[in-house]
Amino acid sequence: MSAIQTDFDRIALLSAEDGWTQNNHYHNFLLRHVPAKCESALEIGCGTGAFSRRLAQHAQKVLALDLSPEMIRIARQNSTQFSNIEFQVADVIVWNFPAETFDCIASLATLHHLPLRETLLRMRDSLKIGGVLLVLDLFERARNVLKPEGLFDSVLNAMAIPTSVSLRFLHHGRLLPPREVRAAWAAHEQHDTYPTMNEVKMLCAEILPGAKVKKHLLWRYSVVWKKKPV
Ligand SMILES: C[S@@+](CC[C@H](N)C(=O)[O-])C[C@H]1O[C@@H](n2cnc3c(N)ncnc32)[C@H](O)[C@@H]1O
Fold this sequence. Notes:
CATH topology of the largest domain: Rossmann fold
Strand content: 15-25%
Bound molecules: S-adenosylmethionine
Largest sheet: 7 strands, mixed
CATH superfamily of the largest domain: Vaccinia Virus protein VP39
Number of strands: 7
Order of helices and strands: HHEHEHEEHEHHHEE
């Protein structure tokens, strides 16, 4: 856990500004699913708070948690005009999720750092009835091109690379992130692992019945689930 915190303290200092990223690209998609009446929202792994600030325009209160003190410092610095966001340094693995409290719980590009089943269960139990769970995260690509899933992922990957490069150029005027940002992510990704789409789908079918699981172009999947009365 301390390696993850060190990685993200380093990455935070290199990503203090908001702007297009492969995660932010899906903010509008996720925000479309926030309940119309949202008193209380929770974000897990908020990073520098780009999504928390968007969520705060749809929710009365947002509680945003992150393991990295540097991420939280920058998130607070960038959010001074949002009096309805509370940022806290917290390790979600040991954080005490209050029961049936939130109208919306979101997590972007963070669940792959956490035990997936246990964290989804804790998020689920912390939602009010009618509340919505929103997940965006990375999946492990199927690599065997002789199988339909592997072939599909290879085609998707071949389309995703030029799309991502073009979008970065459009938004930042450069084809690749700066060298020091690439180096920080490359060091971090050495100890990153992702679930396969199949694992995500099977887990959601088991513990989030009716969840909409979607594979997106830029190497990410989403889960949207509304909690119904049992
Ligand atoms: C790839 S970043 C994503 C940040 C942000 N959600 C975004 O979309 O840009 C993953 C974030 O998860 C946080 N994180 C990782 N493990 C965590 C944990 N156990 N508890 C809380 N946050 C954690 C990291 O500090 C980091 O800010």
